[in-house]
Amino acid sequence: MKKKRALLILLGLSIVWMAAPESPTIPVQGATSKDWNANTFWYEPWGRSGVHKGIDIFADAGTPVVSPTYGVVVFRGELGIGGKVVAVLGPKWRIHYFAHLKDQAVYPGYLVRTGTPVGTVGDTGNAKGKPPHLHYSAVTLLPYPWRADDATQGWKKMFFLDPNEVLDVK
C-alpha cells in the first residue's frame, strides 16, 4: 500500500512539473535579442557537432549568466566542446544548458529561481580564443515527435527546442 501511494505521489508531482508555468528570461545579465543571431539555431555546417543546436549570446567575459527560470541544477562540469557547463532542469521537463562559462556558481542539487547566477560568460571549450559568449540550449526530456524533419540531424529537433521560441524573442 505504501509503494502504491508513493508511486501516485511521484506521478502527481511529475504531472505538476510538466504543467508548471514557465516564463524564461534571457540568461545573460543585461543582454537583449540583439546580442545573438537568431538564425544560428540549427545552422549548419557547425564544427564537430555538425549542426548548431542553440544560440550564442555575446557579452564581455565575466558577465553574469543567470538561470532563465526556476528549477534544480542537475549538472556542473567540464565537457570537451562546451568547456565549463551548467545544466538546470526547469518546468515542463526542460533542461537549460549553459556552455563556455568562465566560472560556475552552482552545484548539482541547488535550487535556483529566475535570475539566480549560475556562472559567468567565458570562452572555454571549443570557444577558446573566440569572442566570449554563452552557448544556450533548451532541451526537452519529453520528445515532441511532430518537430522532427528531414534536416541534418532533424530527428534531434524532437528534443532541442529553438531558444528564440523558448525565450519568446523571435
In short:
Helices cover 13% and strands 35% of the residues. A hairpin with a 3-residue loop joins strand 6 and strand 7.
| Chain oligomer state | single chain
Number of helices: 2
What's the overall average pLDDT, rounded?
90
Total beta strand runs: 11
Q: Enumerate the spans where pLDDT stays under 50 for 5 or more consecutive residues.
A: none
Largest sheet: 9 strands, antiparallel
Order of helices and strands: HEEEEEEEEEEEH
Distance separating the two termini? 49 Å
Strand content: 25-35%
CA-atom Rg in angstroms: 16 Å
Structural category:
mainly beta
Share of residues in helices:
10-25%
Overall spatial form: globular
Layout: helices, strands, pairs:
Blueprint: H1 2-19, E1 43-46, E2 50-52, E3 55-58, E4 64-66, E5 71-79, E6 83-90, E7 94-104, E8 111-112, E9 117-121, E10 133-140, E11 160-161, H2 163-166
Antiparallel strand pairs: 1-2, 3-10, 4-9, 5-6, 5-8, 6-7, 7-9, 7-10, 10-11
Give structural notes:
13% of the residues lie in helices and 35% in strands. It has 170 residues and is mainly beta. The termini are far apart. The model has no long low-confidence stretch (mean pLDDT 90).
Keywords, please?
single chain, nine-stranded antiparallel β-sheet, mainly beta, two-stranded antiparallel sheet, 35% strand, 2 helices, 170 residues
